[in-house]
Amino acid sequence: MTDAIPAGAAEKREAGKSASQLSTWLAAGAPTLVVIAVILGVMEVASWYTPSYVMPSVSSIGGALWRLMTLDLHHVLTTLLRLAIAMTFAIAVGTALGCIMGMFRPIQPYLRSLVIIDAGIPALSWMLIAVFWFRDPEIRIFFILSVIIIPFYALNVHDAIRALPKDWVEAIGTFRPSLFQIFYLLILPHIVPYILMTTRSIIGYAMRMVIFAELIGAAIGIGSAMGLAQGAFEMNVVLAWTVLLVILNLVFQQAIGLIEARVLRYRPEATIR
């Protein structure tokens, strides 16, 4: 009998927590819905006074979006696959470079200088270089995304290691751990929030880069499809692809947010009163 009371109380707390999370998500999504409604209203009004190749109606864009989702889904899947492969590689290599810079001080200045130089090269330069260096469009796109994204992770992970509290480093040092133990027990838990934050910050930028790369040198993918629509003066299709990209970015942001909440659930959220 005494055990049933705490169990019921726990269920009530979980239900209250779920309801609170739902209300928070709804409150956070309300401004987005309002902004979307205003944008659609402005587009619809603009379509009344301009030619269709300048601003098509919202219904025309919606019809084109439906066709894309039903007939041209292979373009979407191809772009997402390219993005996933490049992002996975960039996270792995960038995190490794950041850890090397943070854990091996003698080579840190040289490696950091190399990463900063890479970050300073414009994306367009890398795209043109990839055209000269590689024949395969898939390798071109992978190369472009990798060299553009890797510096973000490398620099942020390095800064995360530099931000480690000195007391933590000294405390774990008293146990004389191995280098692997220092990485696994101290560095890795500390850099995970930085990796998630970086991913959340650059996912939209990475999406734009893969679209741009496909527009230049690919025969399949969202960027290539948008180029074909532009050449045929199908403004409704161009805007439909744009709407789809915005939707994908919102989905990615929410997915990363859920992963972050799950992985970092042990860490209490700070609130300012």
Write up what this structure looks like:
- The chain is an all-alpha fold.
- Helix 3 (73-103) packs antiparallel against helix 4 and helix 3 packs antiparallel against helix 8.
- It has a single domain (58-263), classed as MetI-like (MetI-like fold, Orthogonal Bundle), CATH 1.10.3720.10.
- The protein has helices at 4-49, 58-71, 73-103, 108-120, 123-133, 137-162, 166-173, 179-217, 222-231, 235-263.
- It contains ten helices and no strands.
The amount of helix comes to: over 70%
Rg (C-alpha, Å): 24 Å
What's the total count of β strands?
0
**What's the order of the H and E elements?**
HHHHHHHHHH
Tally the structural domains.
Answer: 1
Secondary structural class: mainly alpha
Distance between the termini: 40 Å
What's the main sheet like? none
CATH class: Mainly Alpha
CATH superfamily: MetI-like
Q: Classify the oligomer.
A: single chain
Count up the helices. Answer: 10
Q: Rough shape?
A: globular
Mean of residue pLDDT values: 83
Low-confidence stretches: 1-5
Fraction of residues in β-strands: under 5%
The CATH architecture designation is: Orthogonal Bundle
Using the coordinates shown, work out and report the CATH topology: MetI-like fold
